[in-house]
Design a protein that fits this description.
The chain is mainly alpha-helical. It is about 50% helix and about 10% strand. Helix 1 crosses helix 2, helix 1 packs across helix 3 and helix 2 crosses helix 3. The radius of gyration is 23 Å and the shape is elongated. The N and C termini lie far apart (about 60 Å).
Length: about 230
């Protein structure tokens, strides 16, 4: 048994396909299939149901996959520690970013990162907060950038920066500000369900029910830019 075999079964579990898993792991399908089969024989457990379409992880296999996630995560952490000691930044990092900040943040950091760390293979995925937390827990992502606070206690967070939260719209005549109570009475554009900022805004502004603006138009988007253009 070796780390590569564990990485292979994690890839098959993720993609539900031996061919896609092989492409992801940069090996031939024959090599990956043989290594997975050898691991199943060593463990005396059938990890995957190959007759299912798509390939399914068996009940016993799910426990093996869970254990493999822990082992691979610890192995990667050990490798990262050794590189940090040697002051080397290299390897493969899978980073998730929530859609609401991806379009504004990524252009500011990606070019700098890839130029400063040419040995770093950075993979960026745009995912919602809930999916990001799940992917971090399952080892599909190494790090994520999202909006805090989050309800989950499964991930460790560190504050990167702070932004003011602004209301974009029209103030009533003669007013220079709007109260939370008045705001709750307005029809509003909100981000799509699944976005943490949508839930935070609903809670912060006491919005019991989403009211699109105007009455004959409903817009839900993944980005602030689309909401502003719609307004």
């Amino acid at each position: 048994m070796n780390i590569h075999q564990l990485e292979y079964i994690l890839a098959v579990d993720q993609f539900k396909s031996f061919s896609k898993a092989a492409d992801y792991c940069h090996v031939t399908q024959a090599t990956l299939s043989a290594m997975v089969k050898k691991l199943e024989e060593q463990l005396d457990i059938v990890i995957f149901d190959r007759k299912a379409n798509p390939i399914a992880t068996t009940e016993n296999g799910r426990e093996i996959v869970f254990q493999a996630q822990q082992v691979v995560a610890h192995a990667n952490a050990l490798l990262s520690s050794s590189k940090a000691i040697n002051q080397k930044v290299e390897g493969r990092v899978k980073m998730g970013v929530i859609p609401t900040i991806a379009s504004s943040m990524l252009p500011l950091i990606l070019k700098h990162l890839v130029e400063k760390y040419p040995l770093l293979q950075l993979e960026v995925y745009e995912v919602t907060t809930n999916q990001m937390i799940k992917d971090l827990r399952d080892g599909k992502l190494d790090v994520g950038i999202l909006s805090t606070p989050i309800a989950s206690t499964e991930v460790e967070t560190e504050l990167l920066y702070v932004e003011d939260l602004c209301v974009y719209g029209h103030l009533p005549a003669g007013k220079h500000s709007i109260s939370k109570g008045d705001l709750a009475k307005q029809r509003m554009f909100l981000l799509q369900e699944g976005h943490c900022l949508r839930d935070q805004i609903i809670q912060l502004c006491d919005l019991k029910k989403h009211k699109p603006l105007p009455s004959n138009l409903s817009v839900e988007s993944n980005t602030f830019d689309t909401l502003k253009l719609s307004g």
